[in-house]
Amino acid sequence: MRDEPRPRVRVSVPSKRRLTIRTAAVSALFLSAIVGSRVASAADPNNATVKPAATDIYQYAGECVIVRDTWSNKYVIRDTLGYAVNAKAKTATPFRMQATDLGSYLLYGPDATMPAAAGAGSVAPALKADANADWVLTSGGATLQLTSVATRQNLSVASSGRLAQSGAPNARWRLDAADGCATFPEIAVNVDGLPVPLGAGRAIDVRGYVDTHVHVSAFEFLGGLFHCGRPWSRYGAADALTDCPDHAPDGTFAFAENLLSTGNLFGTHSIHGWPDFDGWPRHDSLTHEGTYWKAIERAWRGGLRILVTDLVENRALCEIYWLKKNPCGDMDSLRLQARDLYALQDYIDAQFKGPGRGFFRIVKSPTEARAVIADGKLAVVIGVETSQPFDCLYRDGVEICSEAQIDRGLQELWDLGVRSLFPVHKFDNAFGGAMMDGGVTGILVNIGNVYMTGRWWEVDACPGTDSDNTPLSFLVTYPSGPVCNVRGLTSLGEYLINRMIDKGMVIETDHMSLRTRASALTILESRGYSGVITSHGWTDATSRQRIQALGGFVGPYASSTNDYIAEWQKAAATRSSAYTWGIGFGTDTNGLGAQPAPRPDASTNNPVVYPFLSGDGAVTIQQSQWNTRLWDFNLTGAAHYGLFLDWIEDLKHVAGPEIVDDLSHGAEAYLQMWERAFVR
Length: 680
Prior knowledge:
The strands form eight sheets. Strands 1, 2, 3, 4, 5, 8, 9 and 12 form an eight-stranded antiparallel beta sheet that branches. The chain has 680 residues and is α/β, with parallel strands linked by helices. Helix 10 (491-503) crosses helix 11 (514-527). It has 17 helices and 29 strands.
């Protein structure tokens, strides 16, 4: 299959200066290439040295600089009134250049204030990092222009010698190397070492882990106000890791959080994320952010090589939930979340000093994934898990969709970079039946099924020994089980499966009803198609074996240590000798699924001991610390995404090194599965 160009995404850059910035950036990179500037692989973003000439607007990320006005040859100094341009280099105020996006920065001062656009064209110290303190750099050759994100005015100097804003061109600034800067507040990674690039073009098996199911963009789903916190902010962890306003002051009104975490609508919790994190993240908190980008960096440094992040939406729950700012339509939400992922990639690139230099790389083919991993970075695959793909509806027994609508929607998702998709999720839809949910959750999801389809789930006896989940009786009576959803793969579902095969996409079979999944696998078997996966445990034993026989991939849910070990043993016992064996795990982080709890006996029975070595022995993993909060897996479980390294260490303590070996072959096995599907 031919790779498609990714959509260009930028965040909060003044529109009338975008062309100027892009042109300047291209020119800067061209000039840098002529003079022999190196293009770095993923590396520590704070290890480079500032060059004296302003030829690269990205090089300043994380650097300590003093700001020189080349028109007067004087430097900026912070004084009691704000900022003046009257200092010599030795008395100038040093600023930490904190990247907010590619080519834009906060100038973080020693007193934690930043020059910010203020009223009447002035520039004043600000403690809050926001658009007023955010400046876009453009290159004027050997000098720079700084443009306010908030006002679109340029940094200038008034006749009084004070910093000011001006609408006139002001490419007058130089950023000279300095010391004595404060450190911008950020989350620590606590891993010593970096993945070693393998080198381009080397025919070598990938060693590392694959998370087959995570939701990095879930902060936007269910209307955008259901989930608290986000995986990044232009203005750092202090802005990204704050609780939802409706959770204040003590979680009493956080009804969704209380119900999902404790099973009771009523309760309290500490609302404190940043800076002390005494309230969240937690392994059992389902509405708080778990994938802050520094936690993803920790996982990557410790061995994660492929991350499949699913754009996610549930239109029914979004429309029912009373707080929202985003549209509830499935495709509207997926478009928004895709843009977010590219913006996150740009943000991480900015921290690592330029486009393509960050570790978080969205890939659209197995060839791209291998190249990214060979460069020592993390291959990010975009998937979709939503209840009404392509806004196709199923209502009162009628599929409201067409083959043309499927083709348009599938192509749009492909153009966004999506390469993996769930035909069915949670509710019966136009393509087939759902596996259903059990317990109290099942009652809520069944109500959602009625809301969307006009019908309760309908069940009967299963055709074999496997079954779907048994829903609880509530307004409708169900037998005690085992039971199966009567709805199977529809004709539109058959069309979708075949079109996904034609495009070389990975077909996600989790959440399908037993009948739907069996029919889908029959199509795959008839076409000899390997691009199929069970990514987080919503399957049955027979289907898992059929997937393995096809050369598909298995990623059990990353549940408690002992439960995951049991699933690993089952999958290992039925693996196919025709294909490379390796296993993944589906964390479902941010996806309303609890994360691994600590082992009940972990503190006394072979606990995780810090520090420990990564699975390949290449890096040392220290105990995770966010500001003053220490995370001990033996006590907290996988409270945030970076602690899945600690979970893998715990798996090793219980099951031995063989499980880590199988996990470390997971990335290679996944890539081979994708290659068999993609190159046809």
